[in-house]
Amino acid sequence: MTGAPTHPQSKWLEAELKYDSRVVGKHEVVMTRGLGATVWDESGRSYIDCVAGYGVANVGHSHPDVVRAIKEQVDRLIVMPQSLPNDKRAEFLSELVSVTPAGLDRVFLCNSGTEAMEAAKKFAITGTGRKRFVSMKRGFSGRSLGALAFTWEPKYREPFGDAVDNRNVDFVTYGNIEELRAAVTSDTAAVILEAVQGEGGVRPATLEFMQEARRITQEKGALLILDEIQTGFCRTGKFFAAEHYGVVPDGMTLAKAMGGGIPIGAFVMTQEVADRMPAGGHGGTFGGNPLAMAAGVATIRAMKREGMAEQAREKGEYFMERLRAIQSPKIREVRGLGLMIGVELKEKSAPYIHALEHDEGVLALQATPLVVRFLPPVTISREQIDAVVAAFERVLNGVNPRAERQAQLAAQAAAGETAQGEAIQTE
C-alpha cells in the first residue's frame, strides 16, 4: 500500500510521502478524525476501525473523559520530571495499582511498550543477578536494539546484525512445556511471555502452559515477565490477560491502551524486584509526564466505570461466533480472546485486508502472512461488528460493492438516467 498517492489532490498525503523516512509503509489515505470505533478520512469517508492504533484505542477514539482530562491538564502543567513529585502522577499510580494483580505495586513509568520492555530487561538483570533470558518463538517484544533480542521474527533483527545481541536469549516453542523446562536454568533471569501472541498470529496460550511457566520460573529462581502491552486494559475480556490463567507474574510490561491514545508505558513489578535496581539505574525524560498521567487516570476510570472488560468478553464472543458462521473454504480457523481476534486463512491475507479498507471501509491488521487481525475499540457496537463480518464475508467471496455501484452509476449515465448533481465516485 505504498507508492504514488491515489488522491493526488491531497497535499497532506503528498507531504507525508515526500518527507517521511519511508520506514513505515503508507496507506493511500489521510485520516483526520475519529470517534468511538469510527474514523474519517479527509474526504469525509467513514471507516469502522478494527486497528485502533494497533490496540491503543480500547476506550474508543476521542473518549470524552480522556479529551476533557487532557484539555484540563494542558492548562495546568504538561511536563515535570519524575525527580519532582507531581499530583497527577501520584493519582495515576494509585489508579494503576488498583487494577494490577496483587503484589505488582511498584511502577517504572515510560512512554511506550518498547521502553517498558527495555526497563523490564534491566530490572530482571538487577533483580536476579543473572543475564540469560528465555523468549518465545513467534513472539514480538519491540524494535529497539535491546527489545529486538527477545523478538523472534528474523526480518526484524537481521538488518542490524551483531548489534542485536541475543546470545543470552533462548527461544522456545510457544506452548511447549518440555522445551521451556529445559531452557530455564539457574542462569535464567526471566522468561518473557505474551499471554496471547499478537504479531505471532493471535494465539492464546493454554492454561497449562501459563501455569507451568509460573511454576518453572519459581522453581529456578527466575522471573516471569508477562508482556501485556497489547493484551492489557480490557482487550481480552479481563483487565489483564494474566487473569484468565490465575497467574501472577513478577512483572508486566504495559503501554498502548493505558493512556487512551496518549503515548504512555510502564513496567509494573513486585517490591522485591524494584528494590534491587540501584538508584539512577534507569530513567527517562518524559516518563510519567503530567499530560500522559491525566490521560491515564481518565482512561482507567472509564474502563472501570463502563465495565469495558466485560464488554470485551461479550462482544468478543459475539464477534468470533459471527466470524465462525461465515461459509468460506478460505477460512482455516477463527481464534482469539475477547476483542483480540485472528482469522487464519488458507492463503495470503493481505489482499483481503486491502479490500476491506478500499472497498468496504473497514480497517484491519495482518498478523503473520495468513492471519487477518481484528483489534476494534471495546466501544464497538454489535451493529458495527455485524457490518464488519458482512464486509469480510463479501471480500472473501470476491464481492466489491463499491465497484458494483460505480458500474451501476456508469450505466445510468450512459443511458442518460443519472440524477442531476450525482457524480461517479472514484478512488
Automatic annotation (TrEMBL):
Enzyme class: transferase
N6-(pyridoxal phosphate)lysine found at: K256
InterPro entries cross-referenced by the UniProt entry: AcOrn/SuccOrn_fam, Aminotrans_3, Aminotrans_3_PPA_site, Class-III_PLP-dep_AT, LysJ, PyrdxlP-dep_Trfase, PyrdxlP-dep_Trfase_major, PyrdxlP-dep_Trfase_small
Residues binding substrate, per UniProt: R143
Main subcellular location: cytoplasm
Keywords: Amino-acid biosynthesis, Aminotransferase, Cytoplasm, Lysine biosynthesis, Pyridoxal phosphate, Transferase
Localisation per UniProt entry: Cytoplasm
Catalytic activity: [amino-group carrier protein]-C-terminal-gamma-(L-lysyl)-L-glutamate + 2-oxoglutarate = [amino-group carrier protein]-C-terminal-N-(1-carboxy-5-oxopentan-1-yl)-L-glutamine + L-glutamate
Domain of life of the native organism: Bacteria
EC number(s) per entry: 2.6.1.118
Cofactor note: Binds 1 pyridoxal phosphate per subunit.
Gene Ontology MF terms: transaminase activity
Binding site for pyridoxal 5'-phosphate: G113, T114, F140, D227, E228, I229, Q230, T285
Pathway terms, separated by semicolons: Amino-acid biosynthesis; L-lysine biosynthesis via AAA pathway; L-lysine from L-alpha-aminoadipate (Thermus route): step 4/5
Cofactors named for this entry: pyridoxal 5'-phosphate
NCBIfam families with a match to the protein in the record: argD (TIGR00707)
Family: Belongs to the class-III pyridoxal-phosphate-dependent aminotransferase family. LysJ subfamily.
Alphabetical list of HAMAP family matching this protein: LysJ_aminotrans_3
Task performed by this protein: Catalyzes the transfer of the amino group of L-glutamate to [LysW]-aminoadipate 6-semialdehyde, generating [LysW]-gamma-L-lysine.
Protein name (database record): [LysW]-aminoadipate semialdehyde transaminase
Organism name: Deinococcus seoulensis
Lineage: Bacteria, Thermotogati, Deinococcota, Deinococci, Deinococcales
